[in-house]
Each structure stands twice: as structure tokens, then as C-alpha cells.
TrEMBL record:
<dbReference type="InterPro" id="IPR005025">
    <property type="entry name" value="FMN_Rdtase-like_dom"/>
</dbReference>
<dbReference type="InterPro" id="IPR029039">
    <property type="entry name" value="Flavoprotein-like_sf"/>
</dbReference>
<dbReference type="InterPro" id="IPR051796">
    <property type="entry name" value="ISF_SsuE-like"/>
</dbReference>
<dbReference type="Pfam" id="PF03358">
    <property type="entry name" value="FMN_red"/>
</dbReference>
<keyword id="KW-0288">FMN</keyword>
<keyword id="KW-0285">Flavoprotein</keyword>
<protein>
    <submittedName>
        <fullName>Flavodoxin family protein</fullName>
    </submittedName>
</protein>
<feature type="domain" description="NADPH-dependent FMN reductase-like">
    <location>
        <begin position="3"/>
        <end position="120"/>
    </location>
</feature>
Amino acid sequence: MKKVIVISTSLRVGSNSDMLADQFVEGARKAGHEVEKISLVGKQIAFCKGCMACQKQGRCAIPDDVNDIMQKVLGADVVCWATPIYYYEMSGQMKVLIDRTNAMYRLDYRFRDVYMLSTAAEDEPEVPQRAEAGLTGWVDCYPKSRLAATLFCGGVDGPRAIAGNGKLREAYELGKKV
């Protein structure tokens, strides 16, 4: 049994990327894993100030929700990020959270496999490439980990437009394979 953390970065409740995340969660649970989904809806996450206090303290000096999220990520075997693609890049809130995990850089971590689920209004195959490259930059800072898989669903621009899309089943199956 693995401990799986799924971070849904969309701030729209029931968004398309959040629906992919839910299916990944269900698949991982079906496979017998311990799964926690963290939604950024309602979380307080400030911008990184670049003060570098985190490198001395092993935690961020900003008193918001990030330190709690980091502790869960550090203790997970698997981390799955779910994001909408805005202007061909990961959501701003996902990037801010990634920046804020700088405190983890010198700490011990368990995660080995990192997954990315993404959605966008655009449907061309190159749409998720910049977001994937951004996440790969984070993964590369943790040499015992790897980007295990990505799943992209394009052509979904309205709320819940992904309903009935075969990508939901793919997310479920991906979660089962964790």
C-alpha cells in the first residue's frame, strides 16, 4: 500500500481538472492505496518572498497553509498534481505552491513517482508541454523521484465539460496503476 497525495490546483469547485483528480483518487483507492486529495480551494497560499529562511528553518516563514501541505507531500510515496492549463501553462496557484515548496529542497522525502493531470480549452497535443516542463523542473530537484506519467484532456472549456469524456476513465486507470 502506498500513501498518495493528489493536489487539485483549480480554484473552481468541480472543475474539469478536479474531476480528473477525483477519478485518479478513486482508481488509487480501488488499488488499495491510502489517498488524500488536497484542494487549493479556500487555502491561503501567499507568494514566495525569496527570503530563503526556509533553507535554514526547514519550513516556510510565511504563516499560511503551505507548511501543512508540504508535510503531506514529504510523507507521500506518490504525488499527483492536477491543473487547468491557462495560456499554455500550469495554473498560477500551482506555480506559486511549487515555488513555496522550496523549504523541501534540503529535507528528506518519500515520494518517488509524480503524476500530472491537466485540462484545457485548447486540444492540440502541444498544449500541456510547457506545464509539464514546469513540473519537471520541480521533479528534477528531487533526484530520487521521476515524472511517472501525465494525462491531458483538451477541448474542455466550460464547467464540467469533461463529463462523459473517456479521459476520466483513463485517470481512474492511471490511479489504479500507481
